[in-house]
Here is the input.
Amino acid sequence: MSNYIIEGGKRVEGKVKISGSKNSSLPIIAATILNGGKTTLYNVPKIKDTEMMYEILKTLGAKVEKKNNKVVIDTSKIEKLEIPDDLMHKMRSSVILAGAMLGKYHEATFTYPGGCDIGTRPIDLHLKSFEKLGINIDKNYGKIRCFCDRIVGEKIDLDFPSVGATENAILAACLAEGTTVITNVAREPEIIDLQNFLNRMGAKVKGAGSNKIEIEGVKKLKDVSYNIMPDRIEAGTFLCLSAISGGHLLLEDVNPSHIVPILTKLEEAGCNLDIKKNEIEIEAPKRLKAVDIKTMPYPGFPTDMQSIFATTLTIAKGTSVIVENIFENRYKYTRRISKNGSKNYNRR
Ligand code: UD1
Here is the structure.
């Protein structure tokens, strides 16, 4: 779709069911490589990014069958361990396949993912984690070949709690010899969803949601069925749609505990929220109030909601200040290590 034509001036009202999470689906689709068998996934959103992941898996030799709300992925005949350049460039998060390919086959070749509209997308933390696990990395004319004979569990301390680097390190370590301990990890709910999926497959991963994850390597993983969790950014987007239009919406199939900072900011802006276990009802005021926002690693305010709030707040009374701290500006943050070993971020 090249353009949207929006006829405005209407209050958005009604009920909406929230789709499965995009950011959970992508690493979980990649993780299907690990069992070398059949995985059935429910609630994967039907969007370009998931279609692209299926395309890449198919070029590696997997079979993908889609039926209604179900996708069956068969990775028993993977024969290629290189992500095609054009697909890698179309989808930056395809780098997440590397961890799964390395975990299962000890080899993966891909190109640098490149930047995007919100800034540069480096992968140094992914590569550093692979190196820590004893994986060799050859960089040649933009191509990265990662390979090793075996993966042995290690201690990895991430310089920054990158979501993708955390996921890639987990995927590479699931079938390793011994135990891998990763500290300063991302704490996003999508990492918990990945842990739950992997454990259902027979992996031994614990700690997701905290800042330390332990993976005890297992020899083999089994076929599995899994239901992807709801998308917290889609939920936040519908809430903002209601807020910006003075609307009244009921969101179903949502996990309110994943979007606490979004709910807090909408309440500060004057919205009325009725929060239940899997439902949120929002009633917007006639005029929103200005609020200030600073994006932070989870459980802070999510960077993916920053532009949506910026749009919503254009009609608020007063001036809102929005500070982006995850992309581009992340080096403004220093890591403070407390006496008990936990790490916090402080603005310099
Ligand atoms: C994921 C989400 C994306 C979200 C982002 C931050 C998926 C598929 N995408 O992206 O929607 O906006 O988390 O919440 O889950 N960085 C490095 N080196 C690295 C990796 C990251 O410097 O090797 C930096 C990035 O440039 C950025 C910060 O770390 O400044 C956070 O990035 P990261 O958490 O890795 O985001 P993604 O996993 O790419």
